[in-house]
Amino acid sequence: MRFPHPDLQKICFLSDGPDVLIKLMGADCGEVEAELIRRYCALGLPPTCSVEAISTMFGYNPGFVWSLLKKTSKHYRVFPISKGKGERRISAPRVGLKLIQRWLNFHWSLVWQPPECVYGFVAGKSHVLAAKAH
Question: What burial class does residue 102 get, using C-beta atoms within 10 Å of its C-beta: 0-12 exposed, 13-18 middle, 19+ buried?
Fold first, then answer.
């Protein structure tokens, strides 16, 4: 699934920054959480510090976000695909969860720097380079 959503690059997704997110959360956001949201955003990290913050950012019902955390199997579509003589079981996230996963991946990949010894799933590195290192 491509992710053409224009709000992907926003650190607070549908909100225009940490202060707007805090205001939208209203009474659900205490002073400690507000400071945490500001600190995460200043570091370039998504402010995913509570169910309320995630539900406000994405426009989801807090019950849905709670369900993502507590009833995980409900949010995956499971199907088989052929693999040689057998089958392989695929668990693909449904749209609501996939949206959050893609957004988190985008923002975390901007700030995470892998150690030099890591080659797997790192852009520009391969198994050939890993073998040469050994």
Answer: middle
Structure tokens at 127: 């198994």
pLDDT exceeds cutoff 90 at 3:
no
Higher pLDDT, 5 or 85: 85
Give 48: exposed, middle or buried? Use CB within 10 Å, 0-12, 13-18, 19+.
Answer: middle
Token pair recorded at residue 1: 């699934």
Instruction: Please give the Cα distance from 66 to 115 (Å, whole number).
Output: 34
- Distance of alpha carbon 93 from alpha carbon 86, whole angstroms: 23
The gap from C-alpha 68 to its chain's centroid, in whole angstroms, comes to 12
Q: Which one, of 118, 114, 134, 113, lies nearest residue 126 by Cα?
A: 118
The stretches of 7-91 forming alpha helices (DSSP H) are 18-25, 31-42, 51-58, 62-70
Determine the Cα–Cα distance for residues 79 and 88; give it in Å rounded to an integer.
8
Q: Which residues contact 34 (CB under 8 A, 6 or more apart)?
A: 22
Average pLDDT, whole number, for the chain?
91
